Amino acid sequence: MLSELTIKNIAIIDFLDIDFSKGFNVLTGETGAGKSIIVNSINLLLGERFDKTMLKEGEDFAEVSGIFSGINESSEKILASHDIDCNDEIIIRRKVNKNGHSKAYINDMPVTIAVLKEVGKYLIDLHGQHEHQSLFYPDRQREMLDKYGDYGDLIDKYQGLFNLIAEKKMKLSGMRKELSNILQNKDMYEFHLKEIDEISPKIGEDEELGKIEKFIKNRVQINSYIENIKSDLFAKDGVESKIWSAIENLDKLSKIDAKFSDMKEILTDVTYRIEDFKDRIGEYLLMDDEEFPPIDEIEARISEISRLKKKYGGTIESVLRYRDEVVQRLGSIDVDDADLTKMEKEIEKLLNDLHSIGEDLHNARMETIREIEKRVPGILAQLQMSGIKFKVKFEKLQTPEISGIYSYEFYIATNPGETPKPLNKIASGGEISRIMLAFKSLLNEKRMADTIVFDEIDTGIGGDTGYKIGELMKEIASNTQVITITHLPQVAVFANNHIKIEKYIENNRAAVLVKSLNEEDRIDETARMLGSAYGKESALEHAKELLKKVK
To answer: Where do the domains of the chain lie?
Structure first.
């Protein structure tokens, strides 16, 4: 249960420390006194979002802490899973700065907001203002059924399978998209591969073809230049004959002086090189044009290779590198129609399993529904709603949902002879509040949380019904701590611990005072709640009688 709540710098609260007791705790006070601030602060301990407008004006941070004792087994398991010792008591602390940055601690150990929410749902069941109106929605109605039922394992099994199917369907969609892309790209890749292989360029081929093209185009000019060279070197009065004449003269000189022999050898060596040159350059003249492909074929080949280079990277090396990549991509295609068929059959089988589990879950819900249909009218009768017909109608869904394969909706008839109609069509605010309280009474038997907080659940209710609500809340409090904010004296008089919230002005600023009331104080507060239209003394006497009556 929540033993103590401490609030710092929230709204008009500078510092507040509230002690709660076992059983039935009631908070009362004038409208605007600060009761909703206390509920919002409890929400912060449960991991709810911090609204920066909640921060007290002029302050840099807000902080809420709560001491919880008598921790239930579910909370202990969650705490143990996060390596947090509790020893039957924990302190939860939440600090938020003006920028909205939040830090949370359990027993001074930092925890995430997710952990706060995980633990919080077993510590406190907080029924905020107007939350009872959520019962107008079928999804919320089903949640209430499921909280009462003992089939959590079936829900987990169904939802686990539902999520698995959703994952499989997403994967199947991805596979279909991948296959579509592959088929589109496959045609493109195969075209590219065929295009490259048909031309089959070789490294350096473009340069060699360029040389051949240049040679063929300049063949006439080349022959002319060669003839000129041959004439200069090998004609009757050319260089060659002059060198041989010089050699003859050097031969004669060497007979006169031996040192001219070396010079003769140099020129003789030159003649050998000239002869070699004469043979090589003559080869060009002997070349037959038929040794080369036609110039138009060479130009066409050059054009094909240039087109490939332009398309696939600029060089023959890049063309061949891209070809290798295409071969690798085509070889890595691992999705085909057979894979899709296999996945579709797998999903179909899982869907059949889902429907089977969904029927099991529906059957379990029907057992709960039959019990609730019997019990809710009896509890409502205690709350001045006699003769109620309460039914839960169901309908099979066309498509399975995360909640199951059936929808459920509460139907009610508030007057004899009427046919039950959807709750959201006929129930008034006061009636829906009592129906919610009836469910809370049933759920309390499960002891799902150590503390239940009701924030003005009795709105729109008065007279003798108020007493009945107070009696039921006290009955709930015999098993679970109850903290209730109320404006009804008929409810407040049943409290084990009556706490008054007051707003006052100090140094031209609003502040909040909390006081746990003794017997005399309770008389005064109850009288205030009753009103003094017929005189203060009359209200005080009435208050005394009420408090005396419920003891």
So the answer is: 1-129+456-517, 182-331
> Which residues make beta-bridge pairs with 61?
97
Tokens representing 45 are: 């301990």
Determine contact, residues 540/523, Cβ cutoff 8 Å: yes
| pLDDT value at residue 140 | 84
What is the Cα–Cα distance from 102 to 494, expressed in whole angstroms?
Answer: 38
Q: Please tell me the distance from the alpha carbon of residue 57 to that of residue 451, in angstroms, as a whole number.
A: 31
Dist. CA 316–CA 339, nearest whole Å: 38
List strands edge to edge, sheet with 404-413.
389-401, 404-413, 421-422
Residue 86 pLDDT > 70: yes
- Average pLDDT over all residues of the chain: 86
Lowest mean pLDDT of 70-74, 191-195, 248-252, 361-365, name the range.
248-252
Tokens standing for residue 144: 């209430």
Sequence letter at residue 426: I
536 pLDDT band (50/70/90 cuts)? confident
70-81 burial by CB neighbour count: b if 16+ within 10 A, else e? Answer: ebbebbbebbee
39, 128 in Cβ contact below 8 A? yes
Query: Which residue from 1, 101, 93, 3 is spatially nearest to 41, judged by alpha carbons?
Result: 93
Closest listed residue to residue 99, CA positions, set 65, 61, 47, 64: 61
pTM of the shown model: 0.66
Highest mean pLDDT of the ranges 250-264, 420-434, 445-459, 469-483: 469-483
Contact 40, 9 (CB under 8 A): no
Cα separation of 330 and 319, whole Å? Answer: 17
Q: Which residues contact 110 (CB under 8 A, 6 or more apart)?
A: 103, 104
User: Is 1-129+456-517 in CATH node 3.40.50.300?
Assistant: yes
Q: What backbone phi and psi angles, to 5 degrees, belong to 2?
A: -85, 110
CA–CA distance, 461 with 441 (Å, rounded to integer): 18
Any idea what DSSP says for residue 55? B
CA 379 to CA 545: how far, in whole Å?
27
Query: What are residue 437's DSSP bridge partners?
Result: none
C-beta atoms surrounding 135 within 10 Å: 20
Structure tokens at 186: 């496959």
Q: Report how far residue 313's alpha carbon sits from residue 31's, in angstroms, rounded to the nearest whole number.
A: 78
Which residues, other chains included, contact 126 with Cβ-Cβ below 8 Å and sequence gap of 6+?
A: 39, 42, 43, 46, 452, 453, 455
Gyration radius from the chain CA atoms: 49
Could you tell me the two tokens for 390? 């309460």
DSSP element (H, E) containing 523: helix 519-530
Answer whether 470's CB lies under 8 Å from 492's CB: yes
Burial of 187 (C-beta count, 10 Å sphere; 0-12/13-18/19+): exposed
**Cβ–Cβ < 8 Å for 1, 481:** yes
Segment 137-173, tens digit of pLDDT = 888 889 889 988 989 999 999 999 999 999 999 999 9
Q: Could you count the other beta carbons within 10 Å of the beta carbon of residue 262?
A: 10
- Picking from 369, 383, 409, 535, the residue whose alpha carbon sits closest to that of residue 463 is 383
